[in-house]
Every structure is written in structure tokens, then in C-alpha cells.
Amino acid sequence: MSAIGLTSAAWLAHRHANLATDDPLADAATATSAAPAQDAASQAASAAPASESEPAFRVETAVVEHSFSEAAQRLGLDAATTARLARAFSGRLDFRRDLQRGSEIRFVFRNDTNGADGANGASDARDTDDVSPANAGASQNASSSDDTPVAIRISNGNVSHDLFLYRNLAGKAFYYCADGHAAAPSFLRYPVKFTRVSSYFSLRRLDPVTHRVQPHEGVDLAAPVGTPVHATARGTVTFAGWQTGYGKVVKLENFGPYSTTFAHLSRFAKHLKVGQTVSKGQVIGYVGATGWATGPHLHYEVHVDQVAQDPLTVDLPHRDPLLGEDKQRFAQQVALIDPLL
């Protein structure tokens, strides 16, 4: 049995009047106009005002027993939102490896149910990180703003990682770190769900097949045959075929100076062809042991300016940080919500 600690805390945030109408995280209840004293007294006798009966935010806490997804879903988060949060943290945490039993996760939710804040449209967003209503399906229900955390903290011992949801002036909603930098990288760190790293990046490695010392310009990620392999970033297929040593291999030209290689595949994704544009996270092939391989694994390479880099440590590009008015608005929201975490 999983023991999930669940606590709920209430918090009422009073904002300045000039922020109440345009802040995607501001509570609608705080923007109501003041009533005369005698009206307030009569209202209190019959029903408490919205600002007293329903606080702007609620905080819920879960303690990890087995996995992040289990903890999140026990608090009512759906699978799509859980996956989106995993992607947002992917540049900083690997949930399968970095989370430990006893790690604490704190979510801040809005209590607003009018669907007008920066978190609605989350569950049907087409972009993997964009949670703006422009990317939402028409069936979005009114309570979805309750289902998307406006802030989250994951604590591993003395180390904490925080993310905050913010809709920028262009209408796009993403998770950001407290300093205004986008949380989700433009690159995924890992292209496959692997069981272990079977061979690391090295400039001098004794090749187990050729028995010669030579560079190993990638990392080998062991996984069962047939495990889906995903593009780690948007790119164009420059090669999909057979190469000596690599076996069945896919090569992508990504944006800027980046390119990636995926080797020893058992087969390619259906209809994959040279010149095709693929998106981040798209399946491009399946793990195998073709070419010079001693067992099923994915050989994965990242090149920057045509120079091989260690895929496990290379700096990954992120979206541009918030600037100007967006940065100021975001800082105000962080100041409002951070004390809840």
C-alpha cells in the first residue's frame, strides 16, 4: 500500500487593484468591488463573501512512495498533467532516478473555477509544454483550472526544485523557474526509457567488438528490443538507413548547431524518410542490436558544431527567458505564490 501524505492549506492573496484584471494567477474574488458597510453586514448574516469562503489558492502535499506519477495522481492530477510536469522538470530531474522514497511534492492550485486564468486549457494542449487555451480542445470543462498546478516544489532532502506557471503577454502558458527561465528544455535529455547506461561517452574506450581503443562518441542506453526511441528535439531527418557499425541508424539535423544520432535500431518508425521534419518526443525508431552491438541498446550521440559531446552532461538549449514586462509580472506572481511552497 502506498502512503501518500495529503495536506491542504488555504491562502488568501490580496493584490493591488491594477493587477487584478490582467494577472493570470490573480484570484477573481479579490477583484470584487467593495460593498457598503450595511450591505456587508447583511451578507455576512446569510452567506460569507467569496474572499472569505473560498481562498485564492490551496496547497496539497504528497510523499513519494513509488513514483511521481502515483503521488500526483493520488492528489487528483490526470495522466496528461502528470506527464506535462515530468517534461517541465526533464532538464533538471529524471523522475525515475532522482526521486527517492520519502521525497516531498507540494502543489499549489487555484480555487478559481471560471476557467479564465492562465492555467486553463491544460489537459488538451497540443504543444507538449504550452498550456494556453488557444491550444485547448473545445470540450475543455470549467474545472480544469483546478487540475493544473500554478506552482510545484519537489524536495529531495535539502535540495528543492520549484516551477511556476505563467501565461506570457503573447498568450502562451509555460512553466518557468523562479528566475524567469523556461523550465522545459528545447532538448530532452534522454531519447528512450532505459534500464541502465551500459557504456559512457569516452574519448578512449576499448571497443568490445573490434577490441581496439577508440573514441566512443555517444552513450549506450540499455533497453529491451522494441522500446520506442524518441527524437530529443525538433529536427530534420538527414539519414535513415544502414551504416557499418551503427547498424540501422537515424540522424537528425536539429536547430542551431545541434545534431543527433540514434543507432543500433531494430526498425524505423513507419513512414520515416529523409527530409522529413520530426518534433520533440516523436517516435523515430525502436531499440535493437543491429550493427556492432553486443546486446540490445540505443547508441545516442549529440553533436554541437559537428563535435561530439557527452549526451548526459552537454548543456541543453532552453526557450528564451522572460524579459521586460513579462519578467516583472512573473516576479510579482512568484512573490505571491512562493510563500505557499
From TrEMBL:
Cofactor(s), names only, from the UniProt record: Zn(2+)
Alphabetical list of InterPro entries matching this protein: Cell_wall_metabolism_enzyme (IPR050570), Dup_hybrid_motif (IPR011055), M23ase_b-sheet_dom (IPR016047)
CDD domains tied to this protein: M23_peptidase (cd12797)
Amino acid composition bias (Low complexity), ranges on this chain: 132-145
Domain M23ase beta-sheet core: 215-311
Repeat recorded as keyword: no
Catalytic EC class: hydrolase
UniProt EC number: 3.4.-.-
Spans annotated as Disordered: 30-53, 116-149
Any GO molecular function: hydrolase activity
Pfam family, one: Peptidase_M23
Keywords: Hydrolase, Metal-binding, Metalloprotease, Protease, Zinc
SUPFAM superfamilies: Duplicated hybrid motif (SSF51261)
PANTHER family tied to this protein: CELL DIVISION PROTEIN YTFB, PEPTIDASE-RELATED
Protein name: M23 family metallopeptidase
Taxonomic source organism: Paraburkholderia guartelaensis
